[in-house]
Write a structure and sequence with these properties.
The complex is a heterodimer.
Chain A: H1 3-10, H2 13-44, H3 51-69, H4 72-93, H5 103-125, E1 143-145, E2 148-150, H6 152-174, H7 176-186, H8 188-193, H9 198-220, H10 231-245, H11 250-270, H12 275-289
Antiparallel strand pairs in A: 1-2
Helix pairs in contact in A: 1-11, 2-6, 2-9, 2-10, 2-11, 3-4, 3-5, 3-9, 3-10, 4-9, 6-7, 10-11, 10-12, 11-12
Chain B: H1 2-27, H2 29-36, E1 39-45, H3 52-71, E2 80-86, H4 91-103, E3 109-112, H5 116-129, E4 132-135, H6 142-145, E5 154-156, H7 161-179, E6 183-187, H8 192-208, E7 213-218, H9 228-237, E8 241-244, H10 248-259, E9 268-271, E10 275-276, H11 277-282, E11 291-296, H12 304-317, H13 323-342, H14 347-354, E12 358-360, E13 368-372, E14 377-379, E15 384-387, E16 398-400, H15 403-417
Parallel strand pairs in B: 1-2, 1-3, 3-4, 4-5, 6-7, 6-8, 8-9, 10-11
Antiparallel strand pairs in B: 11-15, 12-13, 13-14, 15-16
Classes of the chains: A mainly alpha, B alpha/beta.
């Protein structure tokens, strides 16, 4: 515990700016994964335990596309769409068969695919870790603001993620497709009786969740080394985010992810040996005071 | 019309061959059985997960050396057969696999290519089953230094943490004096290896260069994906130098993420695990001037045998060897020399032969490596530090560690720890 260091940090603009942007960037990538997880749970009522593997696939797809084309734009868009398509196929062929079964069966299917995808990654890309490297457009010195350090790539990342969060919000609340998704989430039988193809809705939602995870993986690829199994740690953090924000709430996922990012960023200065502990304490506190999460609906 | 003739000839030939084989087997059963029976060497290691490269590059190196031994006739015709088991990095599985390799698969020798966590578990199985065991990847000093943990038939060919700490601090202390690096910070993985390595480094650093001041520590989790909070903390502390025991993919991520903060324009990095080909080649924009220990470099020791070994490995497997590769190749060198010397696979006899043995090796500081009798661990292997450049040979000049100094400080450390 070093509260003095934390106070000193809060009293200097450079520290506040650097740590806040650091926290935001950690939170933003986490949000993309957690948003997909939350969206799938909110609509399909299944916990997609292999969501971290979709993040991993996004990173590897981006690596291959970037290596093949040299274009980071193609790599990111292609990886996100590729994982979205994979999510659709996975949902139609496998997950759709276990919607009404015990949660253990769903867990088993997901865990099986975690192992299969990890091994597939090792066969295709090798067991050794890979690094994509920073695209040339972002290889420039960080921006200095009041003594704080703002990396250009991270500013781009924050912008992209905020844009995605906005689009998701508009999609779910202001469009007909969003209303159908919300209707299918509340009462799929009634939605189906109204002539809406709920199987298509569920497949689409799973694909969208996969796309978000793939996008997160692709955006992380320039700064995080890739290795089979890399999705596990982000899955755990995504669960913490969705528990804090509320399962099924996209807004909750955004707030939860940013909170986690900031807690880790400032916690490493004030509680360097207890940063993870602070994160879990925070989650416990939310669970005790509001078991459905900050933005979750009471059951 | 020719078809039946061929069939008849084949049948006759087959009967003759079968008869001859049966006769040979009946006449020389013991010779035949003894020559056919391979020497089974069990290799518990990690072949899956984020550290899979440890097991893969260990197994590759062992296979290269076993093939050489077998091609040269083996032990009176008996060839080495490697049987590998994946512990997935779990100590309990490492112990179970070792037991199964010995009792189930009939392995007479164990080469424990486990990380430290697994190696300690394997050690306890060896204590009970008393076969020969060589630990090849565990660098934790106490495995061989602590008499309570030591086992008569267990040896280690991995580099040792205390040796690394002494050499690292001596080198870093010299650089610190020359460049006036007084404020230091550390950033190492938060588990046993990272903690032990870093505290030992700081202990010797303060001894060799008492002027330094440690202004902060960062302890990211093992396999952490995002180091942003650690990097921003380092930026706030503004150290002149940073010591890190991060390794493999974690070190690559840390460097990639540090790069976009321009961290190394203000701080000199001493990364003990940088100079391994898999890490050097994985970083896309490797900053010049990173100080690193020599994990494995085909240019250090700068002898033709080492370069040839590295090139041959790359030709066979497509990648250069890792630090784990040379440690395993060295184990096989001790093992095959001992096998030929005692003409037996008996654990106690082999252990007697290996204890105090000196072998010629491309990985030796002076062309040889010795298995020190008193604690059954290797000394005299090539160890040094240098600075990186972003292309081959990656670390053009390596300053070798002084083994006389290493052994003196190690002896003091052992006394302090109650090991001697």
């Amino acid at each position: 515990m070093d509260p003095q260091a934390l106070l000193t940090c809060f009293s200097t603009a450079s520290c506040v700016i650097t740590q806040t942007t650091g926290g935001l960037i950690s939170g933003m990538l986490l949000f993309l994964v957690a948003a997909g997880l939350s969206l799938i749970f909110g609509t399909l009522k299944v916990v997609n335990f292999m969501h971290g593997s979709l993040y991993m696939l996004g990173a590897y797809f981006a690596y291959s596309l970037y290596t093949a084309t040299g274009s980071f734009t193609i790599a990111v868009i292609g990886a996100a769409l590729g994982v979205g398509l994979f999510g659709l196929i996975f949902e139609r062929l496998f997950m759709s068969r276990v919607y009404n079964t015990d949660v253990l069966m769903q867990l088993l299917v997901c865990y099986g695919f975690i192992l299969i995808l990890d091994d597939a990654v090792k066969i295709i890309w090798g067991a050794e870790f890979l690094s994509m490297g920073m695209p040339a457009a972002f290889q420039r010195p960080p921006i200095m603001l009041a003594g704080g350090v703002l990396p250009v790539y991270y500013l781009f990342l924050i912008g992209i993620t905020l844009g995605v969060a906005l689009l998701l919000g508009v999609l779910l609340t202001r469009t007909r497709a969003g209303k159908i998704v919300r209707a299918a989430a509340v009462n799929p039988t009634m939605t189906s009786a109204l002539g809406i193809n709920t199987a298509l809705v569920f497949g689409g939602v799973f694909a969208l969740g996969g796309l978000l995870a793939g996008l997160s993986g692709a955006l992380a690829a320039p700064v995080r080394s890739m290795v089979a199994g890399m999705g596990f740690s982000i899955l755990i953090e995504s669960f913490i985010v969705t528990v804090i924000g509320g399962m099924g709430s996209i807004g909750g996922a955004l707030v939860g992810a940013l909170l986690i990012g900031l807690v880790r960023s400032f916690g490493t200065i004030g509680f360097p040996l207890f940063t993870e502990g602070v994160m879990f304490l925070f989650m416990t506190l939310v669970l005790i005071t509001k078991p459905s999460g900050l933005f979750g609906k009471e059951q | 019309m020719t078809e039946p003739q061929r069939t008849g000839a084949n049948r006759r030939g087959f009967i003759k061959a079968a008869g001859a084989l049966t006769a040979t087997g009946l006449a020389f059963p013991y010779i035949s059985r003894a020559q056919d029976k391979p020497i089974r060497v069990g290799v518990p290691t990690i072949l899956s997960g984020r550290v899979a490269q440890l097991g893969i590059s260990s197994r590759n190196a062992l296979q290269v050396e076993a093939d050489k031994f077998n091609a040269a006739g083996g032990l009176n015709g008996r060839k080495i057969e490697l049987i590998t088991r994946d512990s997935k990095g779990k100590p309990d599985e490492a112990a179970n696999n070792t037991r199964q390799l010995i009792n189930g698969d009939g392995c007479e020798i164990i080469i424990s290519a486990e990380s430290s966590a697994g190696a300690f578990a394997v050690q306890e199985v060896i204590r009970e089953l008393k076969v020969l065991c060589i630990h090849t990847n565990s660098e934790t000093s106490s495995l061989s230094a602590d008499p309570k943990i030591r086992v008569p038939t267990a040896f280690r060919t991995a580099r040792q943490g205390i040796h690394d700490a002494i050499v690292s601090a001596a080198y870093a202390g010299n650089v610190a004096k020359a460049k006036g690096l007084k404020t230091w910070m550390t950033c190492s993985p938060d588990y046993a290896y990272g903690r032990d390595n870093t505290s030992l480094f700081l202990e010797y650093m303060k001894r060799f260069h008492p002027e330094i001041e440690v202004v902060g520590e960062a302890w990211p989790k093992l396999f952490q994906a995002d180091y942003t909070e650690n990097i921003t903390k380092i930026l706030q502390s503004k150290p002149q130098a940073l010591y890190s025991a991060l390794w493999a993919g974690d070190l690559v991520s840390f460097l990639d993420q540090s790069g976009i903060y321009n961290l190394f324009s203000q701080t000199t990095l001493f990364a003990i695990n940088m100079a391994d080909y898999t890490t050097l080649t994985a970083v896309k924009n490797l900053p010049a001037g990173i100080h690193s220990s020599s994990r494995y470099l085909k240019t250090f020791p700068a002898v033709p045998e080492n370069a040839a070994w590295g090139d041959a490995y790359k030709a066979k497997f497509g990648d250069y060897p890792t630090n784990w590769s040379w440690e395993n190749a060295l184990a096989m060198s001790f093992l095959t020399t001992a096998l030929k010397k005692v003409n037996s696979t008996d654990g106690a006899k082999l252990a007697d032969a290996i204890r105090g043995m000196k072998v010629k090796s491309p990985f030796g500081a002076d062309g040889t490596v010795t298995m020190r009798a008193e604690d059954q661990t290797t000394i005299g292997y090539a160890i040094g530090w240098g600075t990186t450049i972003p292309k081959e040979p990656w670390v053009p000049t390596v300053t070798p560690g002084d083994w006389k100094s290493i052994l003196e400080h190690e002896a003091e450390w052992k006394k302090k720890m109650g090991f001697a």
